[in-house]
TrEMBL record:
Ranges in coiled-coil conformation: none
Compositionally skewed regions (Polar residues) per UniProt: 1-13
GO biological process, one term: negative regulation of DNA-templated transcription
Recorded superkingdom: Bacteria
Keywords: DNA-binding, Transcription, Transcription regulation
UniProt-listed InterPro entries: DNA-bd_HTH_TetR-type_CS, Homeodomain-like_sf, HTH-type_TetR-like_transc_reg, HTH_TetR, Repressor_TetR_C, Tet_transcr_reg_TetR-rel_C_sf
Domain HTH tetR-type per the UniProt entry, residue ranges: 24-84
Protein name: TetR family transcriptional regulator
UniProt-recorded Gene Ontology molecular function terms: DNA-binding transcription factor activity; transcription cis-regulatory region binding
Length: 247
């Protein structure tokens, strides 16, 4: 059987048209309008037809730059992380602080664009975009400068991204549910806690924790929990780093 040689396709592997060839519509305009549409109406609202209407552009003009919805998502996901910064200089002693700051900034970017959580699971090769590549490459610089070998740095980066995106995806899903309820975040959790405490009476460990969290400021606690849980991961990475140093 002949090997399948078709290459993966991505908006990032297709050269942009020269500016003189696209007087009516640019990639930047498409990204800006798609980002506005997603932020105001959500993931399910995005379609080639709707985007074309908002841009007052015909299908031919739009398809010059993107061939489908997945390619639009590749572009806008990457754009959403444009503002996430890396340290100006990499200092080995500051690797934990640098990663905590990076994780917090990525979290804020996702919370600012809640549709990202859904889009990341089905947006093709979005992670090949220049901003996400810049962040991934910079993170590996931080880890290797701190003393992780190539393989450990790769595993550490995977653990970092898995937690950061996973935790923030759950957070955005919860906030979306709260928004649909019409209640404030604190009102929603007050009602939720009443229900949770009733159904956990036979589960003492869980019931104890609901009682512990009942009076928390939920907005601040979300941020605090994220940071504390990310620190637990960094604690584990520190153990791996120390082990590698002894080899």
């Amino acid at each position: 059987m002949a090997a399948h040689t078709q290459e993966f396709t991505s908006v990032w592997t297709r050269p942009q048209r020269e500016r003189r060839d696209q007087p009516a519509l640019s990639r930047e305009q498409i990204v800006s309008e798609a980002l506005a549409l997603l932020d105001t109406e959500g993931y399910d609202a995005l379609s080639m037809r709707k985007l074309g209407t908002r841009l007052n552009a015909g299908a031919t003009s739009l398809y010059t730059h993107v061939t489908n919805k997945d390619e639009i998502l590749e572009l806008v996901i990457d754009e959403a992380f444009e503002g996430v910064r890396l340290p100006d200089t990499v200092e080995p002693a500051h690797w934990r602080d640098d990663l905590l700051r990076l994780g917090s900034d990525v979290r804020l970017a996702v919370l600012s664009h809640p549709w990202i959580s859904t889009a990341m699971t089905g947006a093709g090769l979005a992670y090949l975009g220049p901003n996400l590549m810049r962040l991934s490459d910079g993170m590996l610089d931080i880890l290797e400068a701190a003393g992780f070998d190539d393989l450990s740095a790769d595993r550490a980066a995977n653990a970092f991204w898995s937690y950061t995106f996973g935790a923030t995806s759950g957070e955005t899903a919860m906030l979306t549910t709260i928004a649909r309820s019409g209640l404030s975040e604190q009102e929603y959790f007050a009602r939720f806690m009443e229900t949770a405490q009733r159904v956990t009476q036979d589960y003492p460990q869980i019931a104890k924790r609901y009682e512990m969290y009942r009076s928390l400021d939920t907005t601040q606690s979300r941020e605090d929990f994220f940071r504390e849980e990310l620190e637990l991961i960094l604690d584990g990475l520190e153990v791996r780093r120390s082990r590698d140093a002894r080899k």
